[in-house]
Amino acid sequence: MNRIPISTVEAVPPLVRIILTQAMRRRANGGITPFTFTAHLVRLEKEELNPKGLQLVSRALSGDRTRFVIKETASGAVRDILEFAADGTLEPV
């Protein structure tokens, strides 16, 4: 019988979505500098994601949209995808 491996990586903490959404909105409306935005992302990954075996990958998309992919560090499996419009609003993926 083939067994399906169960991941030992924890789920993406809800706080991660909240912080990303707030940071994107603040960046879009000029409330924080690009340097501060990047510092938020680095801290989020270091304090919330890395200890849970996760990593954050960001990609710039056409139309000034940004996609964040949260992956398992060990396997590269995608755990969550968040895509934001240029105005900082979360778009359905």
Number of structural units classed as domains: 1
* Percent of residues in beta strands: 15-25%
Q: If strands are numbered along the chain, what order do they take across the biggest sheet?
A: 1-2-3-4
Radius of gyration: 14 Å
Order of helices and strands: HHEEEE
The total count of helices amounts to 2
Unreliable spans are none
Which secondary-structure class do the elements indicate?
alpha+beta
Q: List how many beta strands DSSP finds.
A: 4
Major sheet attributes: 4 strands, antiparallel
* Overall mean pLDDT: 90
Helix content: 25-40%
Shape: globular
Q: Could you give the distance between the termini? A: 35 Å
How would you characterize the overall build of this protein?
The protein is α+β, with helices and mostly antiparallel strands and 93 residues long. It has two helices and four strands. It has one domain. Helix content is 33%, strand content 25%. It has a four-stranded antiparallel sheet with strand order 1-2-3-4. β2 and β3 (78-84) form a beta hairpin. α1 packs antiparallel against α2 (34-49). The mean pLDDT is 90.
Concise summary:
The chain has helices at residues 14-28, 34-49; strands spanning 54-60, 66-72, 78-84, 90-91.
Describe this protein with a few key phrases:
alpha+beta, 93 residues, four-stranded antiparallel sheet, 2 helices
Could you outline the blueprint of secondary structure elements for this entry?
Layout: H1 14-28, H2 34-49, E1 54-60, E2 66-72, E3 78-84, E4 90-91
Antiparallel strand pairs: 1-2, 2-3, 3-4
Helix pairs in contact: 1-2
